[in-house]
Amino acid sequence: MFFVPETRNLSDGTIILTVAVTEGPQYHMGRLEVVARKESAEKLQASWQLGEGSIFDPGYIKKYIADNRSLLPRDFSPESVQVVTNCPDAVVSVRVVVDAFDPKAQALPNNIPCDSSK
């Protein structure tokens, strides 16, 4: 999101402030990966309500954790959810890491930034 302020001074000492807001791209849900034992992974995957291609809501992760607290370890926190952005494609992939000792959990995916030279 970008903000561009513009001020205009009036003769009576009043200042008019106008702010143009340009939103960035709207991100969509990409792939969901749950790193856990098979049975837990299937249950957690089935309870994820953002389907691939739907508009991504970053606040949904907190709700998802609260709604699935009984399926998650006691020490599970939002930091165990990895959100990976692909800016050029405006896609967000999500990894829910329940079993941090699983070898799949060790390979942290990278964000793909937008080309800043444009």
Helix fraction, binned, reads 10-25%
Globular, elongated, flat, extended or rod-shaped: what is the shape? elongated
* CATH architecture term of the domain at 28-106: Roll
Provide a count of the helices: 3
Rounded radius of gyration (Å): 20 Å
Number of strands: 5
Sheet having the most strands: 3 strands, mixed
- Average pLDDT reading: 91
N- to C-terminal distance: 16 Å
Strand content bin: 25-35%
Q: Strand order, biggest sheet?
A: 3-5-4
Considering the protein shown, what is the CATH homologous superfamily of the domain at 28-106? Answer: membrane protein fhac
Q: How do the helices and strands follow one another from N- to C-terminus? A: EEEHHEEH
Instruction: Specify the CATH class of the domain at 28-106.
Output: Alpha Beta
Low-confidence stretches: none
Judged by helices, strands and strand pairing, the structural class is alpha+beta
CATH level 3 topology of the domain at 28-106? Ubiquitin-like (UB roll)
